[in-house]
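The records we work with from here on pair a chain with its fold. Taken together, the tokens spell out the fold as the letters spell out the chain. To see the layout at work, look at the sequence and tokens printed below.
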Amino acid sequence: QIIDRKSSNSLKWNSYDKDVLPMWVADMDFISPKPVLEALHQLVDHGIFGYPTESEKPSKDLSELIQAIIDRMAARYHWTIRAEDILLIPGVVPGFNLACHALVGSDEEVLIQPPVYAPILHAAKNTHIQKREAALTYLSDGSYAVDLEGFETTITSKTKLFILCNPHNPVGKVFSRSELEQMANSCLRRGVTICSDEIHSDLVFSDSQHIPIASLDAEIAQNCITLIAPSKTFNIAGLQCSIAIIQNQDLKRKLSSARQGLLPWVNLMG
């Protein structure tokens, strides 16, 4: 079904001239899933768009969402998380910018792995901190690898946060267990918190298996912020509902505190 989106408030279709086919953003042109539409119709028919309940006092709908997240992580990745590990946020990009804001001082560094998703490249500038780069290595077969020795030597005493993108956008790399373990252990040794953007975790080829870095072991989990969202999987980015999974409660409190007055609650439609 071809749907004309040029007449809607579409970032994808209204950024360039009409003769340009936009393929620069992960926004599919398929209609949203029927259960999503039904849920939104129910809300619209109710007719009131007031402030939604926050997670400290979850409504029935919110409790069901949180349980769905817990069940999904267990079923897909054998990863056990709890309701108190979940922080709802309006987007993954705000999530890793918030982590920079909360965990890195102005004279300290965030580590990234270029070539990488542009908002990750810009996070340091957005939050007035320093950027450190441990570039992925381009191989002759067109794939990319981690220079694990170079990764650790790139870390300095000022490096406080590592933004991992797994699966990696744009190179499409799904990191192996060995790569994740070695990067995670380097970060543990050097006191670097990991913020892992895993928004594309549902969209991998059948010969690959996504592994949440926080699922490797309990010690690594205590050093991780994992960001996921239904937006790519179900094509509902405009609803602005994302999830931060933070099993270290002190770390979760730091992020929650940093969002006050800056990062809003997930909107009612989301």
Q: What stands out?
A: The two ends are 24 Å apart (CA to CA).
